[in-house]
Amino acid sequence: MEYEVVIGLEIHSQLQTQSKIFSYSSAAFGGDPNSKVDPVCLGLPGVLPVLNKQVVNYAMRMGLATNCKIAPLSIFARKNYFYPDSPKGYQISQFEEPICEHGYLDIETENGKKRIGITRIHLEEDAGKSVHSETFVAANETLIDVNRCGTPLIEIVSEPDMRSPQEAYAFLTQIRQIVQYLEICDGNMEEGSLRCDANISIRPKGQTELGVKTELKNMNSFRGVEKALEYEISRQITCAKNGEQILQQTLLWDADKNVAIPMRSKEFSHDYRYFPDPDLTPVMISDDWIKKIENSLPELPKARQNRFVESYKLPPYDAEVLTDQKPLADYFEKVVKTSGDAKQASNWVMGEVMRYLKEGDSDINNFKVSPENLGLLIKSVSEGAVNAKTAKVVLSEAVETGKSPEAIITEKNLVQISDTSELSEQVKKVLADNPNEVEKFLGGKEQVIGFLVGQVMRATRGQANPKVVNDILREELVKLK
After folding, report:
1. What pTM does this model have?
2. What are the phi and psi torsion angles at 14 (to 5°)?
3. Mapping DSSP to helix (H, G, I), strand (E, B) and coil, where does residue 405 land?
């Protein structure tokens, strides 16, 4: 029997506000354990939560960017559960009346474009963190760090529309792109600011009824999500073929061992005993507020990718790579503005720049060469001031020292020699020193010209203009026939 996979994702995105969702303490990542706390996030008696308006703005930005309807009225609820990292014994979330509903994203698959539905996007507060590290505690002991308590989250819940780990990867990647472009989340899965849970089930092909689902948690990388899904799909299919029962349960992904470990039986909504939070009023959103947020949206990844193809005449692959991250796309456009050549800017950014970033395990925000300086370097190549080989050497030194390419070219006298009279003398000397190669060329071996050009470049320490050298060589060789 052939089986069809059904996947839905629940993606938590930490919002980059200065303070927490219902209180004044810092929402910044890191810090000493329990240093970013206040009476509200600690759940002390007699305190009242106050909603951070910026959190609502950010949730609306995400909703509009993913084609959701913004609810004119949304309600906060108490989600009751008793974990050590939740001081109040409940989490403030949204349940029956979320802020955003009924959206979608189009992803690219091997079979073309596919639309993935978004059931809802709702607001909630994050919980704390259990610390098991022996750095802080003795063996078999656990401490609680509540710094993360009250950090604002949006949870993006997809429809069960994905049919492979690759489709889930594409959807998750696009969600990360959007939150980064909106500048509401840094999208860092390793630090937990973007987290993904997956619901997986299988069913016989052709069947419309959903199978028993499991939930995968603790996936902290994009490839980890793909691997975890592949593992769980294979496990469920093996169970089904062996006549074993698939239990509805929550599984933890162990990335070191590449296995999913049962954690607990899967909860249902009634297990949480949701009820409206009596301390928070409903969120009322006017049409004017929605319009204001809509008008503030930046150009989104897909739109920017299409513009790069249409306006800069870039190949679709180049446009996709360059728009993957907003800072990289911003850097590229600044290079184009200075250099005036989009294709050369694309070649340099995707080639040399991205190579340096990969080798240094860094990102474009920390790259030592400004886009303006790279643009000037590209322009100097196109104008014949330096050749491409020299320009790469200059860029390497600029990356290492932080100096501007212009300063390096001046200091080391690397300006390209294009003077024909000066180069003619060098060419004549090379021809005189290499009579055998001259004879080979005159005998029809065209490839020898490359060797002769190389000799001139060597004699001029790489400063000669290769095109001018090539032209002069051919003129001189014709004279010798």
Report:
1. 0.84
2. -75, 130
3. helix
